[in-house]
């Protein structure tokens, strides 16, 4: 039975390359045409493959509908939370998860620092778009014309001397973030708070969320916090892999 399932599933990547006839499927699987036909008929009955008028097979609409439904029901917070807790246990600092929704970047999860000095960020609260590291990652992933349009209409409050001063500087920062694949806020929102962030990507490579580690200067310096960047990026990559289905979740 497992061999039959394996063979049936092996047909799907083949058809993802383009329509194929019965002989091509049989050759790829290394089986007789009668065996390939039984597998194709079963997949066809479930809507996972479709037989064209030229007798070639292609991927079926049901497969795309299932993929779309699965993507719509994915909860990045649910997938990410255990990873965020583990990161917090490793470094001790505040860990955030944020998403871009309706022209705002919102925190959707937070794991508190184990140190006495706490941050005032809250789940559901918008972040400062022009300075927050998570916002830079999410906005940097927008198409260029959208980035430019957004940069022109934003306000640029000078929270600190390190805040982003205007559209040109903001676009330069977003381009830098796109190139390096991570972001920082080193005293741009609050002079005493530093932050490093990494993107979480879906199966298509787009940024679906961003996670960060933040800490006040009285706990660690900016340079000390930056040494955590590899750990932050590994955590974001692990979440990305699980969210996109590239890697399985860890079993208990």
UniProtKB/TrEMBL annotation:
It holds the Pfam family IclR_C. The keyword DNA-binding applies. GO terms for molecular function: DNA binding; DNA-binding transcription factor activity. GO terms for biological process: glycerol metabolic process; negative regulation of DNA-templated transcription. It comes from the Bacteria. Residues 62-245 form the IclR-ED domain. May be an activator protein for the gylABX operon. This is Glycerol operon regulatory protein. It comes from Streptomyces prasinopilosus. The lineage of its organism: Bacteria, Bacillati, Actinomycetota, Actinomycetes, Kitasatosporales.
């Amino acid at each position: 039975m497992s061999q039959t399932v394996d063979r049936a599933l092996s047909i799907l990547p083949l058809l993802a390359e383009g329509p194929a006839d019965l002989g091509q499927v049989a050759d790829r699987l290394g089986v007789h045409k009668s065996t390939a036909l039984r597998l194709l008929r079963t997949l066809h009955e479930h809507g996972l493959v479709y037989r064209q008028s030229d007798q070639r097979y292609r991927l079926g609409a049901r497969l795309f509908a299932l993929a779309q439904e699965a993507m719509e029901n994915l909860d990045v917070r649910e997938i990410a939370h255990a990873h965020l807790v583990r990161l917090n246990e490793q470094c001790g600092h505040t860990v955030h998860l944020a998403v871009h929704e309706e022209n705002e970047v919102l925190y959707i999860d937070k794991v508190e620092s184990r140190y006495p000095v706490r941050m005032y960020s809250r789940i559901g609260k918008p972040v400062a778009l022009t300075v927050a590291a998570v916002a830079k990652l999410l906005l940097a992933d927008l198409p260029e014309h959208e980035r430019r349009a957004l940069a022109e209409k934003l306000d640029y409050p000078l929270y600190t001397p390190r805040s982003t001063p205007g559209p040109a500087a903001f676009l330069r920062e977003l381009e830098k973030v796109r190139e390096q694949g991570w972001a920082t806020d080193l005293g741009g929102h609050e002079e005493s708070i530093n932050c490093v962030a990494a993107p979480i990507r879906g199966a298509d490579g787009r940024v679906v969320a961003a996670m960060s580690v933040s800490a006040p200067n009285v706990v660690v310096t900016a340079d000390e916090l930056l040494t955590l960047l590899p750990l932050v990026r590994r955590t974001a990559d692990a979440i990305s892999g699980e969210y996109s289905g590239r890697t399985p979740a860890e079993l208990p």
